[in-house]
Amino acid sequence: MAAALAVPLTAISAAPAAAASCNLSTGPYQRQVESFLGLPVNGVQSASDCKAIRSFQAQHGITPTEGYAGPLTWRTMSTMLAQRAAGKNPNRDGACPTNVGRIACVDLTRQLSWIQDGSVLKYGPVPVRTGKDGTETRTGHNKIYYRSIKHWSTLYNVWMPYSQFFDGGIAFHATDKSMWNPPGSGGCVNMTHADAKAYWGLLRGGDDVYVYGRKPGT
What we know:
Blueprint: H1 30-36, H2 47-60, H3 71-86, E1 102-107, E2 112-117, E3 120-127, E4 140-143, E5 146-153, E6 158-167, E7 170-174, E8 189-191, H4 193-202, E9 208-212
Parallel strand pairs: 1-9, 7-8
Antiparallel strand pairs: 1-2, 2-3, 4-9, 5-6, 6-7
C-alpha cells in the first residue's frame, strides 16, 4: 500500500523554541516564508512572524533558531513544497527506471523516495534525509546487498534500525531526526521509523536502488 506524504504547508508545532533571542530583522525570503506559514504576507518582519518562524525552525532543528527568514529556512520550505507537488506520481518524468522489476527510487533534488514495481507505485513517495555537503549520498544504480534490522554504526556510534545497505556504507535506515533537519546525514538515506519499517517489509536482498539528482545545498 502506498503511503501518504504528509508535508504540512504550515509546520508550526509545540516544539520549544531555542534560547536564542528573536531576530526582528526582515529576511530576504520574508514574503515566501510568510506565505508558506499562512501568515499575513507583507514582507515585513513582526514579533508574531518571528515567533512562527522560530517554531518552524525549532521543529526541524534549523539553526540559529531566531525567527529570521533566511536562505536555509526557505530552502527547507521549498523542498517541502516540491515534495507536495510530487503527489502520487513522483516518477512522472521517468527519471527512475521502471524496467527492472521492484526498485527503490531516491530523488536527491526533492529529497523523496518511493518503491515501484514496474510502472506500479508500491509505496510512497516519502520524505527522506540524505547526505550533507561533503558526505553526499552517491548517485547511481545499485542493489541491496546487506540487511540488518538493528544495525549498530561503529563509525557514528548510533543505532541504525531497519538498515538496508546498497552502496558501500550507504543504507536506508530509520532515524529520530526530522526529515527536514539540515544539513543532512553522513551519506545514508534517513527515513522515519514507519517508512523504514515499510521498506524493510517490501524490499529484499538483490532489489534495485536508483539514486539521482542533487540535494539542495550540496
